[in-house]
Amino acid sequence: MTKTRVVVVDDSALVRSLLSEIINRQTDMTCVGVASDPYAARELIRNVDPDVITLDVEMPKMDGLDFLARLMRLRPMPVVMVSTLTERGAEVTLKALELGAVDFVAKPKIGVADGMRQLAADITDKIRVAARATVHRAATPLAGGAGAPRQEPQPAAPGGPGESARPVAAIGRLSTEKIIFIGASTGGTEATKEVLMSLPPDAPAVAITQHMPPGFTTSYAKRLDGLCRIRVAEARDGERLLPGHAYIAPGGLHLSVERSGANYIARVRDGEPVNRHRPSVEVLFGSAARVVGPNALGVMLTGMGADGARAMREMRDAGSFNIAQDEASCVVFGMPREAIAHGAAHEVLPLKQIGPRLIDHLRSTAGVSTNRV
Q1: I want to staple 83 with a disulfide (CB 3.0 to 4.6 A). Which of 34, 93, 140, 232 is the partner?
Q2: What is the mean predicted confidence (pLDDT) over 102-108?
Q3: Annotated active-site residue in 10, 103, 307, 326
Q4: In this structure, which CATH number among 2.40.128.600, 3.40.50.180, 3.30.980.10, 3.40.225.10 belongs to the domain 179-364?
């Protein structure tokens, strides 16, 4: 068996030693070199031609994002970011994913046994996924590592209590009964952004489970909120799901939907991992099948594994309209492939077509909803 060749780039000698030891303990991978800064990494990569790189998000001598941007432009390859558990670390990590990094792991406190075991499991799992991933360049260059400018809302008549509305299209609300459900994992931060940015301000509520650890979904939601025409925030337990808003499952907690009278509300709960994940797409999509039924639209985006595939089939059986992302546009085709294999998807589409297709479907079924109280 050919081993996956890994280069570790980190300014900490202790972390370099730790990661190389973790990698070399695996039977299917080997650390072929370590570097303490991007300049040393550049020469090392030229010499050893690795399959995967692990890269610290904050590096000396050259900004890690600048290094990643140059790497993805000149020699695209799978990169797993090693991030700090800070707001700054989360923001830099999200920018790295925009630039084409496959995934990231959160760096625990050195010396904490449970954290070290979790790091070992996370980094080796994600190196394996990265080795098989399809590397996509960033769609547009990010000047100075920054995202696209925020699209500020125009003045609009205020909505009801708690409804901070963005401008509503002239055709009126697409539907106050429908809800869009999105599940994603590896590569999903950018895929979800693509879908949400294509939605108009009058889109139905959107509920999202993206596999992410605690501490990162807050920054992710804020980033999306500055880019999209709909509002984006972490879901809060008990809040009403409103049109023109997207709700992201907080890292480490499950998100589901319940009915409260004529309204749909979010349930954010702790609980055991499902399919090894918390939050789990299976939990969110399962609630969509039980509670929302034919008023649901399901979207399965890029990700490793099978989380949510069975529940997405349950959604279809309950009358939902479902789309899976196609293989060519996925970073990892695992989750969409499993959804397709379960017969859960009505259509399989390239990423850029998913948002417009959702809107086309909603327009074609405008006013056609089943209010199951």
Answers
A1: 93
A2: 86
A3: 307
A4: 3.40.50.180
Q: Is 185 a catalytic residue?
A: yes
What span, in angstroms and rounded, lies between the C-alpha atoms of 358 and 301? Answer: 14
Which member of 10, 51, 56, 211 is catalytic? 211
Look up residue 329 and give its two tokens.
Answer: 């546009």
Q: Where, residue-wise, is CATH 3.40.50.2300 in the chain?
A: 4-132
CATH 3.40.50.2300 fits 4-132, yes or no: yes
Residue intervals of the chain classified under CATH 3.40.50.180 are 179-364
Residues 178-211 have pLDDT tens digits of 999 999 999 999 999 999 999 999 999 999 999 9
Q: Is 83 one of the catalytic residues?
A: no
**307 classed as catalytic:** yes
The DSSP-derived string for 150-206 is P-PPPP----STT--PPPPPTT--S-SS-EEEEEE-TTHHHHHHHHHHTS-TTPPEE
Cβ neighbors of 326 (< 8 A, separation 6 or more) are: 336, 348, 349, 350, 351
Which residues are bridge partners to 52 per DSSP? 6
Tell me the pLDDT tens digit for each residue of 67-95.
Answer: 999 999 989 999 999 887 677 788 889 99
Among candidate residues 185, 198, 280, 320, the one labeled active-site is 185
d(CA 80, CA 129): 10
